[in-house]
Amino acid sequence: MFGKPKTEKLSYGIVGLGRFGSALATELAKADADLLVIDHDEEKVRALRELTDNAIVVHSLDKKTLAETGIQNCDVAVVCIGEHIEPSILTTLNLVDLGVKKVIAKATSAEHGEILRTRVLDVIQLSEKINIPKFAVPDKMVGSTVAQSELRGRFGLNIIAIVNGKDVTESVHPDYVFRSGDCMFVSGSEDNVNRLSAWIDG
Prior knowledge:
Elements (H helix, E strand, L loop, with lengths): L10 E5 L3 H12 L3 E6 L2 H7 L6 E3 L5 H7 L6 E4 L5 H13 L4 E4 L4 H9 L4 E3 L5 E6 L9 H4 L1 H5 L2 E7 L2 E3 L13 E5 L2 H12 L1
Parallel strand pairs: 1-2, 1-4, 2-3, 4-5
Antiparallel strand pairs: 6-7, 7-10, 8-9, 8-10
């Protein structure tokens, strides 16, 4: 696990070793920065081990796995997985919740950047057919499971994450029980989102 460096140099954590992440890690290593890099691709991680001893293969970017790498001990964490908007948002949230002092995230659009900057997700339109809105779970759903809510069958929507305070559940199972204070992020068409909104307000 990456520990707090004893030097006065800034320490950096790089999440994602695509072209941007690898190039950034290389430049930081040349500048003799304390560096941690993580990615799911063993080959990319192996290549970076020539630059830092702290190159780690991970198969998940959930909060527990990130904490096990020690990235929360970095002064700056950079999320370089902007081409995948959902993991980018959730990883950014997880790093902030872990207490990283400064989190920088690569964005693929102005909308993506605005989400990352504010940490507020209301409605994000990825295309004309896909939206990612945020809904406060209504009282009539509290105590029921995801499966019982039948959001996919009734509204054609998929739950991609649930947030409650600092708790972020990015892998939502059918037996998850909705709690008071939950906010859910769902993906689907604008029409289906509007149908769910009407049902919640009704």
